[in-house]
Amino acid sequence: xxxxxFEIYREPDYLFLLAEGxxxxxxxxxxxxxxxxxxxxxxxxSRYWNVPxxxxxxxxxxxxxxxxxxxxxxxxxxxGLPLLFGYEWPFWAHAxxxxxxxxxxxxxxxxxxxxxxxxxxxxxxxxxxxxxxRTTFWKVLFPQAIAVSFxxxxxxxxxxxxxxxxxxxxxxxxxxxxxxxxxxxxxxxFEVFITLTCLYIGIAVSFKAALAxxxxxxxxxxxxx
Length: 225
Description:
By secondary structure, the protein is mainly α. Helices cover about 80% and strands about 0% of the residues.
């Protein structure tokens, strides 16, 4: 079989489309990751603190998100919610919302288990020093819980990036969309998807390296253990 990658690379429009797709995928991943983490923190804390009523909503939400397909959630957010509430958003905004809702459920479960893994002796030690409960949680327990969960959050974040390929189904011009468009014009499927695979691997490895660097900066005490 003859590989003809030059049919992709010789067209500036195809290269521009791939570059645009890379930028869109990275942008949506970072936005959804940040928003998903914020929402997940709220969900995890409501369950950890046993907040009345809200903890039941949080539990139901997490279970619903984790037990329904992402593609169904994506279509509901992109096509169902606008019909119900009568608003119009660009496709990329629907994608960010759907991914935020989806991965907040997974982030929340990671954070909840991390909060519960912190020893209760930490509370006793902080109380003996005269620290109020709120200060104890945010200054002592919360940083430790994030440090414990950071590797799992990193893996989930990278999985979030790899999952962005599904947003091409609603017309978002991400990296997968670019590959499918080029494939439909060149009919060189094997070459196109080898190219996509290399790009996805390269970006995922870059994310992993950046998150490892961030881990060391945020939690320097872990390196001394």
